Amino acid sequence: MDTQGQLAERDRSCSEKEHEERSRSSHAPASPAPAPWARMRAWLTGGGPWRRAALLATACAVLVLLVSGLVMQPFLIPSGSMENTLRPGDRVLVNKLAYRFGDDPRRGDVVVFDGTGSFREEEPSGNPVTGVLRRAAAAVGLAEPAESDYIKRVVGVGGDRVTCCDKRGRIEVNGQPVDEDYLHPGDAPSRVPFDIVVPEGRLWVMGDHRGDSRDSRDHLGAPGGGTVPVDKVIGRADWIGWPTGRWSQLRRPDAFAGVPAEPRGIHDADPGAAHG
Q1: Among 94, 91, 96, residue whose Cα is nearest residue 78
Q2: Which residues participate in catalysis according to the annotation?
Q3: CA gyration radius for the chain?
Q4: Mean pLDDT for each consecutive 10-residue tract of the chain (276 residues)?
Q5: What kind and span of H or E run contains 255?
Q6: Which fold would CATH assign to domain 73-275?
Q7: Which residues contact 42 (CB under 8 A, 6 or more apart)?
Q8: Residues 55, 95, 92, CA angle at the centre, nearest 5°?
Q9: pTM, whole model, 2 decimals?
Q10: Which residues of the chain form CATH 2.10.109.10?
């Protein structure tokens, strides 16, 4: 028996088999790398409960800021200028979509607006980092709003003639006396006489606590005669959301229901002119 020949043939057979297997393995496709979404999922679901809690909190914060920036923003009432309708510390929900689709502010609406250029000459200066943090806190109702943001009630819209006052002390809009039952108890509609035609695209706004409100009356000599551009309106205050005991809807009052669309018999008034 040729034992050596058999061993040599077996060695050649094993060598050829190993070479064939290496050749096949070299041509076999490599295992695909995990897809990016799979790696992301593994990272999100890994790391233990603390990472998941942090990610959930971050997602919630981003969602709240997006909703606040685009749809509904909490607004902290900083003063008593709108009492008793709104009190210091109340948080109202400002509907930012109220005037985005062709609708304009109406008489009686409570609006939040940027007073830069009308109630304030310029943007307040300060530390930019502090400003960003403050705006983020204000956006969720945790801090007072920016110094340039105001909340008032619309009394006159573009084209209206607003005067104070008639023989009974009432404000007149387009010659129609307005019974403002929302005023702070004991307040006069105004102790400052005025007579103004509101320019188109602007608003005449006043606080409900007339004795404690710096509003359009205080800026009669400023450009625009104390009126506010419609495009500076941030939104309409629709709800009192906090405290829970004051949760209620802010409805447009009926006080302006009888006001005519145009001033009665007045065609020669100088728009924007104020007298007092």
Answers
A1: 91
A2: 81, 152
A3: 34
A4: 51 52 51 63 64 61 51 89 96 93 94 93 59 52 70 97 95 97 96 95 98 95 91 96 93 95 60 38
A5: none
A6: Umud Fragment, subunit A (2.10.109)
A7: 34
A8: 80
A9: 0.70
A10: 73-275
